[in-house]
Amino acid sequence: QDIVLSVNNLTIGYSSGQEVLRACRDVSFEVVSGETLGIVGESGSGKSSLLMALARLLPPNGEIVGGSVSLSGVGDLFELSSEQMRRVRGSTIGYVPQQPMSAFNPTMKVGRQVAEPLKIHNRLSYRESLPRVLQALNGMGLSDATRVANAFPHELSGGMLQRAMLAQATITNPRILLADEPTSALDVTVQRQIIELLKEVSLEHNLSTIIVSHDLEVVSRIADKILVMYGGRMEEHGPRDNVLQDPKHPYSHALLASRLTADQERKAPLPALTGFPLDLRGVDREAGCPFRSRCSRVIPICEVEFPRTTSGATEFACHNPMGSS
Ligand code: ATP
Ligand code: MG
């Protein structure tokens, strides 16, 4: 299968005042055509930063500190001018930010916003693009597409806006869709419907997808591969079933353990984990594993050295993985 996206040793930093924070360190993975990669990890693990970097939409205080991202047929994204990148975004790459409600312009009808990529990339007028707008809205499960197209954002529900945002991101038939928490603000039924739709759309158009979620349940429904992040580091990466059934990293294991508790407890934040989420400030000055202070399997070397990646059924970065004595 052909590789659509290849991420190599990507490191992302934010500066605020004197402080520099590494939101992602040495992240590497590939996405092949038609494949869905699910990225999971708790709040602050660097998921959105990673996706924003891939779309080259980091905020002004964010920067690519190192690494490269290669998109098939385009080349290294970090070598493109911002004008070239603007053309790639919306034609070859579809991007849905974490807060799509606020991404909509409140004063513009939804249909015109969904049509925007066609205006920019194909120079189509709204009238010309309308059939594709309606088709795209329909394809995302909005059967009342004409009404949706003519509505203003505040007239639609969160689920409808999320679907409209996905319609906009896929209207140009991109090779890869980057979707940041596409369902987190929605109720469970709507979440499931949207996940099913994304799966269908990706199969139908051979679309590769990277879907970010803090919810392993959502990710395990749709993803072919799973990438587990913690503290800006890749802790584990591999085929879904291998990660779910035989996680090697204690953090993956803890995430799964929290999922497998009783249904009502599932909403509780990571009951299997103790301690506090990592404070990333200063982390780049430290060499150890970011998970060590909460890890049940910590050994002395974890304090001083981030583990090399081990390849087995999954790739994982741990000095003392699950199943070893
Ligand atoms: P969530 O699940 O809450 O969306 P996330 O995994 O998407 O979290 P990021 O938003 O990528 O995590 O944040 C990674 C780290 O970078 C966090 O420590 C966060 O506080 C920090 N960060 C994010 N944006 C900025 C910014 N503009 N300036 C400084 N630090 C930032
Ligand atoms: Mg995020």
From TrEMBL:
One annotated Gene Ontology cellular component of this protein: plasma membrane
Superkingdom assignment: Bacteria
Gene Ontology process terms (BP): peptide transport
InterPro entries associated with the record: AAA+_ATPase, ABC_Ni/Peptide_Import, ABC_transporter-like_ATP-bd, ABC_transporter-like_CS, Oligopep_ABC_C, P-loop_NTPase
Pfam families in alphabetical order: ABC_tran, oligo_HPY
Keyword Lipoprotein: no
UniProt topology in membrane: Peripheral membrane protein
Intracellular or extracellular location(s): Cell membrane
GO molecular function: ATP binding; ATP hydrolysis activity
Family: Belongs to the ABC transporter superfamily.
Protein's name in the database: Oligopeptide transport system ATP-binding protein
Provenance organism: Rhodoglobus vestalii
